[in-house]
Amino acid sequence: MAGGGFVSQGGGAHHEGNVNTFVIITCLVAAMGGLIFGYDLGISGGVTSMEHFLKQFFPSVYEQQAKAAGGNQYCKFDSQLLTLFTSSLYLAALAASFLASVVTRAFGRKMSMLTGGSVFLVGSILNGAAVNVEMLIIGRLLLGVGVGFANQSVPVYLSEMAPPKIRGALNIGFQMAITIGILVANLVNYGTAQIKNGWGWRLSLALAAVPAIMMTVGAFFLPDTPNSILERGDMEKARKMLKKIRGLDNVDAEFQELVDACESAKKVQHPWKNIMQPRYRPQLVICSVIPFFQQLTGINVITFYAPVLYKTLGFGDSASLMSAVISGAVNVLATIVSIVTVDKFGRKFLFMEGGAQMFISQIAVGSMIWKNFGVNGEGSMSGGIDADILLALICVYVAGFAWSWGPLGWLVPSEICPLEIRSAGQAINVSVNMFWTFVIGQLFLSMLCHMKFGLFYFFAGFVALMTIFIYWFLPETKNVPIEEMNSVWRAHWFWGKFIPEDAVIGHHVSMEPYGKGV
Predict the structure, then answer these.
(1) Which of 48, 196, 266, 475 is such that its CA lies 20 to 30 A from the CA of 104?
(2) Mean pLDDT for the stretch of residues 398-418
(3) Cβ contacts of 293 within 8 Å, gap of 6 or more
(4) Segment 85-117, tens digit of pLDDT
(5) pTM beyond 0.85, yes or no
(6) What are the C-alpha distances in Å from 204 to residues 48, 77, 102, 124, 408?
(7) 342-360: per-residue pLDDT in tens?
């Protein structure tokens, strides 16, 4: 999948294993979980810009939008109830990810994916059939539970199935699926908006059942990961599974590492209490800070509300949906770039480059909106060269995100946690992510109303901040087997002091399970 020239670091020779079709197919099916999330991110913004939908469920917004025809463009969609429709999903996902972390640990990754898919299916049926706001919101809440389960289990599943040298690429399969979901949703909205008698939004919402069915059926046939089978105590089955996914007969060395890691994880009764210990400080900080920053790049504002945003800036109805399709396509292409480069150039390089690119384009977008709408929000951008430049800048921004913070925001937290705190770390990652997604989703249309073009400068400021953070505090983790991650922290100028000597023992790096002396 990626070019040659991989040198395994440390004592990594025994980690080789052929990348076989079995692993790739398994990971592809698992990454369907991302389709669910992506479809949802993309669909809600398009639906909330459809007039029939607004007329039926949010008449006040519909009137407000008509009023704004000539006046202040910044405020025309400012409604808390409307944003609640979009963001209720993230609150539910937040709550569900804690439940999911328990299920993932006790019943395996596979069970979590099945649960997520089925609940999501019910939610999409309710949404498509909705007759009032309550049904809509209950449907969204169920979708949220599905998303919480999928986002908790899929990245962990992918990290555990993939051989270390292509772990980055396979894991980004999840992000890839999210972007494809977003693009498909944008295309669907573009199509359904053309439906004459105005039931197009029902089709948009109900089609979410398709990725849900794909994931549920897929998860049904998926094997569980060796780590997960071990965690539940079946040694032989786990060894067989490891042979199968590595395509090798002799997996003793790697198997022994898994067993040791699992033994030390078993001693840990409370991953939550555990992740609070000083020795896990780097993981705790990174798992909380990365998803927080990922949301404050401002990306979801573009994803959720792309059609609404383009409409606010005066693009016509189908022009705004079409523009969303264009930024959706850029998103997919740029994610492919990161799949090819992440295990080659490393995580850190992509973070720095993407950060710089987003910073520059956000400043430019803010300035253009300022130039065209000024402070009182009057003006338009219905066509001509300015609208094209704006769309191009947004695409540059989306591309920068899609090969840095997008995929890495999920990859890095899932690969830095040792097994004993992995499910807790991933739950923190998902919940922090959902919490900020909710906050920004809920506040965005009001922020646009009050901060005007300054909103883009606000996000640019955060992008600058997070790029500096990564530069100082994130060590490079490419090609490091998950079990050997501690040596990387130990060598770091800041985090080194938190990692006790005994966590890194043995030759090269550590072959011992972590935390023998605890």
Answers:
(1) 475
(2) 89
(3) 405, 409, 462, 465, 466, 469
(4) 878 888 898 888 878 878 877 888 888 888 888
(5) no
(6) 11, 20, 33, 10, 29
(7) 888 999 999 999 999 999 9
Q: Are 320 and 307 in contact (CB under 8 A)?
A: yes
Give the C-alpha distances (Å, rounded to integers) separating 231 from 259, 420, 486. 9, 10, 21
Show the tokens assigned to 323. Answer: 């523009």
pLDDT of residue 371: 82
What is the reported pLDDT for 383? 59
Residues near 384 by beta carbon (within 8 Å), at least 6 away in sequence: none
Pull the structure tokens for residue 336.
Answer: 């492919």
Ramachandran region, residue 316 (left: φ > 0; alpha: ψ -120 to 50; beta: rest): beta
CA distance 63 to 469: 44
Top-tier CATH class for 21-224+268-501: mainly alpha
> Three-state DSSP class for 5?
coil
SS (H, E, C) 450-517: HHCCHHHHHHHHHHHHHHHHHHHHCCCCCCCCHHHHHHHHHCCCCHHHHCCHHHCCCCCCCCCCCCCC
Residue length of the chain: 518
Q: Which pLDDT tens digit goes with each residue over 134-184? A: 899 899 999 999 988 888 888 788 878 888 777 778 778 888 888 899 899
User: What's the whole-number mean pLDDT along residues 470-486?
Assistant: 87
Tell how far CA 308 is from the center of its chain.
22
Centre a 10 Å sphere on the Cβ of residue 273 and count the other Cβ atoms it contains: 10
Write down the pLDDT at residue 363: 93
* Dihedral sign from CA coordinates of 305, 308, 314, 318: positive
Residues 6+ apart with CB under 8 A from 468: none
- Continuous H helices in 164-234: 167-192, 200-206, 209-221, 226-231
| Percent of residues, the chain, with pLDDT higher than 70 | 90
Report the C-alpha dihedral over residues 452, 456, 459, 460, rounded to 10 degrees: -140
Q: Reduced to 3 DSSP states, what percent helix, strand and coil does the chain have, rounded to the nearest 5?
A: 75, 0, 25
Phi/psi for 223 (5° steps) reads -80, 160
C-beta atoms surrounding 468 within 10 Å = 12
Is 277 strand, coil or helix? coil
- Extract the tokens encoding 515: 């935390």
Contacts (Cβ under 8 Å, ≥6 apart) of 332: 176, 179, 180, 183, 402
Write down the domain spans for the chain: 21-224+268-501
The token pair at 18 is 């052929």
